Every structure is written in structure tokens, then in C-alpha cells.
Amino acid sequence: MTTVEPMTASALQAAERPQRFGALYIAEHQLRAMRAYGWTIVVSSVGSPLVYLLGIGLGLAAFIDQPVASGPAGPVDYVWFVAPALLVAAAVGVATEEFTYVVMAGFRWRRIFWGMNASPVSPEQICSGLVLSVAARMLFTTAVYYALVVAFGAVGNPWAGLAMPFVGLLAGLAFGLPLLAYSATLTEDGGQFAVVQRFIFTPLFLFSGTFYPLDSVPVGLQWIGWISPLWHASELGRQLSYGSTPGGWPWVAHLAVLLVMAGVGWVLARRTFVRRLRG
Amino acid sequence: MSAPVIAAEGLTKTYGSLTAVAGIDFEVPPGESFGLLGPNGAGKSTTMRMVGAVSSRSAGTLRVLGLDPDTHGPAIRSQLGVVPQEDNLDTELRVRDNLIVYGRYFGIPRRTCATRADELLEFAQLADKARSKVDDLSGGMKRRLTIARALINEPRILMLDEPTTGLDPQARHVLWDRLFRLKERGTTLVLTTHYMDEAEQLCDRLVVVDHGKIMAEGSPSALIRQYSSREVVELRFGSERNAPRRRGSRERRSASRCCPTGCCSTRTTARRSSSTSPPRVCTPPRAWCGAPRSRTCSFGSRGGA
Amino acid sequence: MSASTDVDARSGGARALYSGNARVVVARGLLATKSTNWVVVVSGFFEPVFYLLAMGWGLGSFIGDVTLPSGTEISYAAYIAPGLLAVSAMNGAVYDSTWNVFFKMHFGKLYDAMLSTSMGPLDVALGEILYALLRGGVYAFGFLTVMQVLGLNLAWTAFLAVPAVLLVAFGFASIGMAITSYMKTFQHMDWINIVLLPMFLFSATFYPLTVYPTPIQWLIQALPLWHGTELVRGLTTGELSSASGLHVAYFVAMIAIGLTFTTKRLRALFLD
């Protein structure tokens, strides 16, 4: 081994911190950028649960004649049934926003990912940092949501329900990470995100047992629920809130599906970032 | 003698069947200002990306600061400042925040970032714009901000990809002046450019690249001496109306144009020839060297120094 | 002579803004649609259909019939279908007159190019609105066809829902455009969604207003979407009353105010 040049040694040393904390630096940047629209995040995080819980949980519920769902101890309030699903949908909604246009902006419109790429931070870390910052936003949204759910009395067991924000986060990632992997491949906005919104998010939101149990959906459409992170996470949330519905899937199964979806999306997204940034 | 900061041998990059860089050799010693000159698509930017450790090479060897970019990307990038062809500033952050956030990518403590950001804004003559939005800056200011951002980690090598393309003449001069100061401080500069005048301003040594190969190498003045005369006559063939009819009159606007890119080899350009009207004479290139603000070359129809 | 100068004096302001060429903008919109992803264009039609199927059929089985103010009982699907039609008219019109216009104004620079021709800002504004209405009209017709197939059109007056939807859309588009002219950043645009969401959920779209306390009912009745849903519902269920006339008047006033404002703003933005 020959002697290492001083310039080489100092380069190796300077890379140590970024190699360890790079993802955090990226997340820090993204969160700083979110401050530009911080107020709309706060207002919609508080306003949208308020409006949905009032409108669906109380307003619409007044017109429902027969019990929609039941737990181990018999029929439950309609608002108990919808609240976990609405919370999960809010997290997934954040994903459809942050893992689409923000990614397009990073690669193409504002090109900031290319700026990050020229620093010691690696493409994998850029991807992870972005995910971390969005996860933080999701967790904020679901935590606020849960606080309002408790205030509305829309949860059976408020203590077990404390895990609900994390279930929402997991659903957001299970939906969002595959979406991120897709968004990162796009070089041009040809309305693909609008299609994702209308043909994927909306049907998943509507047909995943959000407003009524999945088994009242025609059998031919029930598969939409099975592949939907919204359904799995909503069911998990309901089990936390009032216990499992008789004949439902065990919670481990729901959790496993969510973890697999998020995991596969994570691997694909990181791979796409590397391919895109290291041509 | 100190080891080169960049050493490339047979450096090659292919994308499928397309060869962007076809085996080039060069070395950059510390403190030198090194230029890659050539037309679009010559392979300059690809070379820069490989040196910048963001694109892996297809063949050949490359050492930056004694390290292989394919295995030590983060270590190399920690010592580089990169000014890309297209600005990629974060328009959602303010001017000063852009510098601070960028410094954080290098693991520099927040406080140090803030101190350096203020110094660099001063250096880039943007101190009064610290709180402005990036979108409110002019093109020249954005470039200066990008350069300031590239300096936040006190890089050993500053890499600039076409630093002044798209800027107006005055903004170019301001930028050259700043880069010249960096050069005087001993920062190693690696830059690509289309313009010989820019290369003359900033480079100690340059290579002319085309079709992924090095066509010529040397100091700017040597290259001009060797490959070109000081003036170039450009011939244009067109309609009757555009042709230079009144030879020797004062109206020669279409026939001749001063071309400071001494070694440019575009097809429409012919070497000095006596068959057309005499070329206008520019200020000799030598007089521009080292005096960034003094060089003039008027492109008007009257011509002549 | 004097007559023509008279005309100039009266309409000079409008003439500087309008060259009577809005159809060119519509033609450009159609051309642009042809070359964009058709899936995106079609998707606008499917969104309300998904809602109708999921809520109307799915949730409808738990809700049963809904009683209208007149005492008539109708199925839940027949109740929400006109509401969804009005909502999709609102969403489409608001999207086209806000996000779309905002983007073209600030990023596409399309209007700068248009305004460097003989066209005035009002040509552009009217053209954009007309194009949005044309698309909205096609979607509305499609949705009404779905309703017809599902047996949710309860009266012959249902076909009048198409012009009614256009009226509703025109109202929202003209106000939307006026508001957009004040918007400077994407963050501002987010507030539009924040305002639309409660209106969407509370305006008798999914259930009658009767659940609310009276003051809240008044508040909702002051908002445009409620007038839209009631107008369209009156036509598809055949429950027309003098209130229907009031709803029409509401939108006529909204269009008048919106266009006046838009014209004023366009003058300030492009001519001053």
C-alpha cells in the first residue's frame, strides 16, 4: 500500500458524515421547502377531518337506517366505522400529492434532485430523504386527524387507537412508494398524475370498504379492496378502535400486505432514483 | 511535484451504440484552470459528469483526487463544487437559504453554513438579495448564486459546465471577474465552454473536444497561434440582396464578421481570403488576456479598431 | 360619423379587451385536447360515475329512500345523482378556470403569445370559459345517459339538466377566473381546494339540509353549489318550483358579477 495523498485522505474523511446522515439532510431541505405552504398543510390537516367527520360521520350517518358494521360486541356507530378509513384516506391523499408533482418538480421543473446529486449524498439517500420528509408530513396529518377523531368520540378504544396514526402512515407509504417509483420514471407530465388520481386513487377510496363493509360490494369487485392499501389499513384501524369484525381477516394479514407493498415500492423507488441520476 | 487532481486515461462513455466520449486522456494539476472547448454534443458534459462522479465510465481509467469515482463517489463529490449547465436552484427557498441547505448536504454544521453563506453572498455580489426569492433574480444573478452555492463546501475543484451560456455580455464580464478571483486564490477550475474568448479569459490550458475525442491541446494563445490567424472571414452565400455588392464601400455589414473564436471550424467559416472584401480588424486577442473588463470587440457595421 | 365615435366612446374600454375572436381560443383548446392523452380527457367523465356507483348503489342499500321537501320519496341513487352532476360541473369549471389558467398564465406563457396578436384578454378569458363549458357539456351529457340507463331520471325535464349544468359551470368559471387573477403562487391556489371541500360535502349533495340547525342551513343556502344541486335535482326528479327560478337567477347574477370582475382584472393585469 502506497502512502495516501493528503487530498485523498481529507476527501475520504469529508465523505463520512454525508454517507451516514445524507438522507436526513435531504429530509431537512424538503421540510424547509414545505414551510412555503405550511399554512395550507396545517389548515387542510385540521379542516379536512373536521369537514369529513361532520359531513359523513354525523350528517350522512343520520340518514342511515340500518347498522352498517358490527364489532365483536354487536353493531357499532357509523362514525366509528368510517373514521379509521377517513384517516387512512387522508394519509394516502398526502402521498398522491407529494409523490407525484413534487417528484416531477425535483427531476424536471425545478431540477433540485440534480443539485443534490452533485453533492456527496447518494441517489438512494435522495430517495430516502424525500420519503422521510413526506412520512413526517403524513404522520402530522394522521396525528391531527386522530386527535379530532377522539374529540368526536369516533373511536371505541382511544388508547389502542393511538396506533392509528401509524397505521395511516403505513398505508400512505404502501400506496405512495410504488407511486413514487412510477413518478420517478416520468420525464414529461402528460396528465399521468390526473389519471392516477381518477382511475386509481378515487376507485380505491370509493370501493375499498371505506363507507360500507367490503362484503356488501358485489363479489366481482371485492378484489379492489384486497389489493387496496386503504382497505387493509382501514380494517387494521377498525380492529384497534372496536375489535375485529366476525369473519374478518386477522390483523397480521392486513399488516403483512401493507408492509410488502411499502417494501416493494421502497426497493423499486430507490432503484429508479439510481438509474435516473446515474446515467 | 504534486500529483494531479484529475487524471484520465482512455476515458470512454458509451450509451448503447452511441459513443459520447471516445477515449480521452488528460491530467489536471492542482491550481490549474483547465478548459474543455467544443460544440454541443462533443462529449464535454458527459466528461464533466464522469469527473463529477455522477456517471460511471464505460472504459478507461479515471482518478479524481487519487480516488476512483466508481467506488468513491461521495468522497470525490465532497471536494467538488459543481455549477451545472442549467440552474437547479430551489425556487421555493430564499437566496440565502439555498446556500445553507446546500451546505448541509456536505454535512457542514448549520452555523458554519450560515457564516459561509454570508461571505459567499458578499463574494457573489448578492448580499443585498439574501432575503429575495430566487425567481426575482436576473439570469446573471442566478448564475452567481449557483457559483456561490458550489463554493459552500470550500471545494478543491470547481467544475463549471458552460458557465456563461445565455448571459448578456455585461453579466458575462461580471461572472468572469468573479471566477478570475477564484483562480487567483488557487482554486482548481474545470470548465466547459463554446467560446474561445471565455477560454482565453479563464483557462491556463485547454483541450478542444469534438465527437468525443481530443482534437487539440495547449494554452489558449498557443492554440490560436498554431491553428488559426487572429482574424477569420466568414462567408455567407445568399440572395442577391444580401451579397456584398459595393466592394470597398463602407457597407460591408454582411460579408465579414469578426470571429474571436480563433480556432472555430464551422463549415460556413473560411480562412482569410483575398477574394472578398477585407475583414474588419478586432482588438488583438492578446490584449484581452488577464484584463477581464477591458476587452472590446464591436460587432457593428462600421468595424475597426 | 358622430354615431361611430359615440359607439367608440361607450365601448372603448371593452374594445381594447375584446376583438370578438374567442372561438380561436376554443379551437386551440380542442386541438390541444386532441394531442393530449385521451385517457386524461375520458377520466373526467368517470369520476362522478364512480361516485354514483359507490355511494348511490353501495351506500344506498343502507340508506333506503330519501324524502324530498314535497314529500315524494326517491331512491338514494336518484337523490345523489343530480348532486354529483352539479359537483362535477363545479369541479370541472373551477379546475379549468383556476389551475389551468394559472398554469398557462405563469408557466406556459401561452397568454403572452395570444395577447401579442390582435386578440384581447377578454377573448382569451371567454374562449377558455367556452372551451371548459364545451367539455363540461359533453361530460354532463354522458353522465345523464348513465342516469337514464340506470333509471335515475325521474321526469322528462331531465334533459334540461344539460343547459342547467352549463349555467352552473359558467357561473363557477367566471368567478374562478376573477379569483385566479389575484393568485401569485401555487400556495395560493391550494386555498381554492380548501374552500371547495366543505361546499362539496355540505351542499345537499349527499343528504338533505334538514339535519342542520337553521342558521347553518341559511349559510349553505347562500353558497352557489347548493343552488346548483337543487336546480339540477329539480330537473331530474321533476320537482320544479318557483325556487328553481331563483336558482337560475342566482347563477345569472354570479356570471354577471364574475365577468365584470374578470374584465376589470384582466385590464389591470394586461393593459395597465
Q: How would you describe this protein?
A:
The complex is a heterotrimer of chains A (279), B (305) and C (272). Chain A is mainly α and 279 residues long. Chain A contains 12 helices and 2 strands. Chain A has helices spanning 6-14, 16-34, 38-59, 78-98, 101-109, 112-117, 123-151, 164-183, 192-207, 222-226, 229-242, 251-277, and strands at 70-71, 74-75. A two-stranded antiparallel ribbon of chain A has the order 1-2. Chain A is elongated and about 80 Å long. Chain B folds into 2 domains: 6-225, Rossmann fold; 235-305, no CATH class. Chain B has 8 helices and 11 strands. Chain B has a 6-stranded mixed β-sheet, sandwiched between helices. A 3-stranded antiparallel β-sheet of chain B has the order 2-1-4, with helices on one face. In chain B, strands 10-11 form a two-stranded antiparallel ribbon. In chain B, a hairpin with a 2-residue loop joins strand 8 and strand 9 (213-218). In chain B, helix 3 packs parallel to helix 5. By secondary structure, chain C is mainly α. Chain C has one domain (2-271). Helices cover 78% and strands 2% of the residues of chain C. In chain C, strands 1-2 form a two-stranded antiparallel sheet. The longest helix of chain C is centred in the C-terminal third of the chain and has 30 residues, at 242-271. The two termini of chain C are 29 Å apart. Chains in contact: A-B, A-C.
